[in-house]
Amino acid sequence: MPRFIPEEKISEISGVADIVEIISESVVLKKAGKDYSGLCPFHSEKTPSFSVSPAKQVFHCFGCGAGGNVYSFLMKKEDISFLEAVKRIAARYGIELPQKEMTDEQRQHLRLREELFSVNEAAMEFFRRSLEDPRGTFAREYLRKRGITAEVQEIFKIGFAPAGWENLINEFRQKRIPAALAEQAGLIIPRKQGGGYYDRFRNRIIFPIIDGRGAVSGFGGRVMDDGMPKYLNSPESPIYHKSRSLYGLHHTRLKCREADAVFLVEGYFDLIAMARHGIENGAATLGTSLTRDHVRLLKRCAAQAFLVYDADPAGLRAAVRSIDIFESEGMAVRVMVLPEGHDPDTYLFENGADAFLRIAENALSAFDFLMEEKIRQHGLSIEGKVQVVSELASYIESVRDPVKRSLYVQALGERIGVAEAHIHEKIGPLPKNNGQRSGFHGDDPYDEAPQLWPDDLSPGDLPPDDYMMADLEPDLGPDFGYNAPSAVGKAAQQRSGDRLERRMIEMMFQCPDMASEVARRGIVACFRDHRIKAVGEMLLSRPGSSLSEIADQMADEESRGLITALGAQENGWRPDDCYRLMEQFLARRRPVDKDLQEKIRAAEAGDDALLFQLLEEKKLRALSAFKPEVFKPEGNG
Q: S-S: 301 plus which of 256, 362, 385, 423, CB 3.0-4.6 Å?
């Protein structure tokens, strides 16, 4: 029976666990100074960017941003829970876990979950046997015609629910499985009259839905004729939630990580067809619209998704809805448009994997797809063009990067034959950044990766009072602990906020004695990135904690990766450097001339030449007030 593990026992396990030893079982590590390096197991790369620090007992990839301690490595690599990771490491080092009992309610809930998993396992075995016995003859022939070989059937544990009302019920009676438990699993349904139950799945091909730990959480059933509904899924239960489940991901997640990309399809047969043709980095939704939880599952396996929905109106509408969710979660997405009348299953069997992958190579970006879809809906009449611009305006308006926004306007204008100036009038000036984004996007102020103006920083990426202040940041050099990440890593790190905030956290990790001075000046309270701020607050509240212990306190994987990225730096910080950085940070937060700021805001309405002139003036004013001597700590003359 699972039990709670006290924090002191976890600390004991952490004290004896060797992160290098454990990671070496799945990653070839080579000594690199005090640390070890190797190819990252979480994304595809040719040059090692994955680093393991035995001194700090943490790992970090400078390519994809993954990071954490020994527990988070196992959780991400094996797709297991924190509790399971602790158990595995404890067993490895011969540490006995305490027998601290759960409450009655917790114990009952866990017992129910385990019992439901066992019921589903028994049902899967019954469906698998039924496919192989005489009752499954027609089902086997149906699968053969659809190109589903016995090998593929075994991989995905495909089965068959025979025709009849009580086949599974009778199986459960023989195994003495309570009907009430089978009902909670969604496998049988109470009769409305006369008492008793009947089977939910009848005369259907059965697809077990398997979770990350390899347990059967639910089922999907498909008819073999024109009966309705075509697909029938398990209902919600204590172990099955369709908004958080993706079909096939338990089998394909390693291939998704190798490719750093995932093909997202709608149906069971679509996913199986891809696997049958050697395209093994895919997943399928389960008869429900895409959710944020689905995208978060995919983000654990890949950096980019390809939407491969049916080329019918319903499939295209689903793709439009999905784009917003992907972008709000910060995951890159492209859309594959198959020829009309095809879904991934039919297209692959008629044209093969090479043709499918050629479409993937030419997949549309999110904006190009939205533009073409709006044109398809409204046409290119005068009224149609007006409608297209109107419906795309909110999407373009939400883009803060002026270069990207300009390119979108240019592409739209050329495509529909409307002057760019008129589209600019429709979408208005650059957003006044208040940390929020509108339209198709979510509320993460850092999920727009490209930063191109000026000196790789877009004005839209800073609140108005900070225009050009980024240029005041001198080249602090290697002493300030900043090692440039790879090109892949830059995109991930640009979502992690202000560079000075990041350096402030690096300094706090390397110079814990400065924590009191950081607190006295109220610096962390001024942080604008909520994740970096949470790390800073954690450092101030837990003085003396190790990097691994701090990482262990963060709830989400992205925050753990941020901590290890900032804390893994090994550079010499002098006291003067620390005070200098604090003064510089506070200088960045000082208000600027309001009259000049009003002129800048007015110029944003369309006078680009004046806007640039005013920004230069603002930079010069700031530079004139920039006195290096203020960076000297008190008492140093």
A: 256
